[in-house]
């Protein structure tokens, strides 16, 4: 924490600001608080229960998960996601099927089932919370795939 | 039933039978009925009380096979801890509520005592090896009874589809009409899933 603060001071100095910034003027994303003060736990965010598929924003973006995944276990025995999203089950579950790319190993050999490197869905696919981003940005979805 | 003559009767069982067979000469019919009535209440009440004592979570997890494996997994799930504070304990899902089905289940459960004595699943490795078989037993039962124990709490007629998510509405409104039952989709909700490679290889790892 101290290291980060001092780094921030150095960076501000490099940006042409006075080097001597009083500690109380430095405001982190968490708001102003004494370093020694106990951290206030942020409000818990709740994932949306269910929704329509979410548009992709850039090429090769892993599609976002438009529903809650609480308690969905992925382990060596079974993958809860695939119980709906596998090629065998997607029709009955009315889910999106997983991409064909997920059957390739790293040498591009096509396998008969989901490749081990693509088995852990939540490494790339994540559910969403409807919240304001902590840091503003000017990102614009690419026009070619946004459908807008 | 003994066909022996009374004069030949010397054995304990035979003599007891003869005693029970002959009418009472000492007690009035009323007294016998009254005693029988009270004894019946005590016996019946005692029987059911004893059966209920085997029907709670502490009893279920009093053997380490249950406590170390399935109970630990269940503690992470919504049936153990949730926003409304309603908990479904082991017997709520695994023992029928209706008396006649409950007694049958309890008699079947004596088989579990045998396997406790044999030590069939007394290590984590043994349990893991048997997990698919054990899970299939539960799935089969649930299918056969139309998920009767689920429906003690989750009554299909009481479900408000407008309060459900779009995935749930789509599948509940068609699947259940088609004759599917809860366990067809809701597997592994209170315990970890077994190795699914033999059951549905498309949902498991390592079948390349």
Q: Describe it for me?
A:
The complex is a heterodimer of chains A (148) and B (208). Chain A is mainly α. In chain A, 17% of the residues lie in helices and 0% in strands. The longest helix of chain A is centred in the first third of the chain and has 13 residues, at 2-14. The relative contact order of chain A is 0.15. With 208 residues, chain B is mainly alpha-helical. Chain B folds into two domains: 32-153, Multiheme cytochrome fold (Orthogonal Bundle); 157-184, no CATH class. Helices cover 55% and strands 0% of the residues of chain B. Chain B contains ten helices and no strands. The interface between A and B is medium-sized, with 32 and 27 residues.
Number of strands of chain A: 0
- Mean pLDDT of chain B, as a whole number? 90
- Beta-strand portion of chain A reads under 5%
Overall SS class of chain B: mainly alpha
CATH level 4 superfamily of the largest domain in chain A: Flavocytochrome C3, Chain A
Task: Give the topology, please.
The complex is a heterodimer of chains A (148) and B (208).
Chain A: H1 2-14, H2 82-85, H3 90-93, H4 143-146
Chain B: H1 12-21, H2 29-53, H3 57-60, H4 64-74, H5 90-94, H6 99-118, H7 124-144, H8 148-151, H9 166-175, H10 182-185
């Amino acid at each position: 924490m101290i290291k980060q603060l001092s780094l921030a001071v150095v960076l501000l100095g490099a940006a042409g600001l006075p080097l001597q910034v009083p500690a109380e003027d430095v405001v982190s994303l968490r708001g102003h608080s004494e370093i020694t003060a106990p951290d206030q736990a942020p409000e818990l965010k709740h994932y949306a229960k269910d929704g329509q598929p979410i548009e992709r924003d850039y090429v090769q973006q892993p599609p976002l998960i438009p529903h809650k995944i609480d308690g969905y276990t992925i382990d060596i025995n079974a993958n809860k996601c695939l119980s709906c999203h596998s090629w065998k089950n997607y029709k009955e579950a009315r889910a999106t099927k997983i991409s064909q790319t997920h059957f390739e190993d790293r040498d591009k050999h096509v396998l008969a089932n989901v490749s081990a490197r693509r088995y852990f869905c939540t490494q790339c696919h994540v559910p969403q919370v409807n919240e304001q981003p902590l840091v503003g940005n000017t990102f614009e979805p690419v026009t070619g795939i946004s459908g807008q | 039933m003994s066909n022996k003559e009374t004069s030949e009767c010397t054995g304990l069982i035979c003599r007891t039978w003869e005693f029970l067979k002959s009418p009472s000469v000492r007690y009035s019919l009323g007294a016998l009925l009254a005693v029988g009535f009270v004894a019946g209440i005590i016996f019946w009440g005692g029987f059911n009380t004893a059966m209920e004592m085997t029907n709670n979570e502490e009893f279920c997890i009093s053997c380490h096979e249950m406590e170390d494996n399935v109970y630990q997994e269940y503690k992470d799930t919504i049936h153990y801890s949730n926003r409304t504070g309603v908990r479904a304990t082991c017997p709520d899902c695994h023992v029928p509520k209706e008396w006649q089905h409950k007694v049958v289940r309890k008699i079947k459960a004596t088989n579990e005592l045998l396997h406790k004595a044999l030590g069939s699943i007394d290590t984590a490795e043994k349990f893991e090896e048997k997990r698919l078989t054990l899970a299939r037993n539960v799935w089969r039962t649930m299918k056969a009874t139309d998920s009767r124990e689920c429906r003690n709490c989750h009554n299909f007629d009481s479900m408000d589809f407008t309060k459900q998510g779009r995935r749930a509405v789509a599948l509940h409104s068609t699947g259940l009409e088609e004759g599917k039952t809860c366990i067809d989709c809701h597997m592994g909700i209170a315990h970890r899933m077994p190795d699914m490679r033999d059951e549905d290889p498309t949902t498991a790892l390592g079948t390349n």
